[in-house]
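Dear colleague,

Following up on yesterday's call, I've attached the two folding results inline so they're easy to grep. Please treat them as preliminary; we haven't cross-checked anything against experimental data yet. The first protein's sequence and structure tokens come first.
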Amino acid sequence: MKPFNLEEYLANPTKRLITRDGCDARIICTDAKSEKYQVVALVTKKGGQEILATFDTSGKYSSGYSNQLDLSFD
């Protein structure tokens, strides 16, 4: 896994994204009107259900600490 980087994603939006716990993720937008969490994605959880999650531009689900939902490149 390689850490998520918004600039790298924008240069190649077809790169596969996963969460820290290995779930597939797909970005819906990268310009949400939010001070901290501009990246909006759908994360496919075990069993196939998608959940909506927001991230900062470095792919962090929660600023300040690691979370299973943090984004990375596969």
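Below is the second protein, in the same order (sequence, then structure):
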Amino acid sequence: MLTAMVLPPILEEVFVRGYVRGRLAISFGAASAVVLSAIIFGLSHGHFYSDNPVVHLIGASSVFAAAVWGWMVWR
């Protein structure tokens, strides 16, 4: 249970913040990479397929949070 709760978020952070943001920064610049990686992060969690507005709000807040954390890592 610990590996199911701890390992995926760590690997996700390494992949999204490290690899994806780094590769996007090479092509689009650092600020655009933060925004694009936040969108990729939000879409990867599947909030887009529901018709419930609360689920969309949660998805939007996860993209916003990912952008804030990405900006903090970048700074």
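For the second protein, one point worth flagging: The first helix runs from residue 2 to 28.

Best wishes,
A.L.
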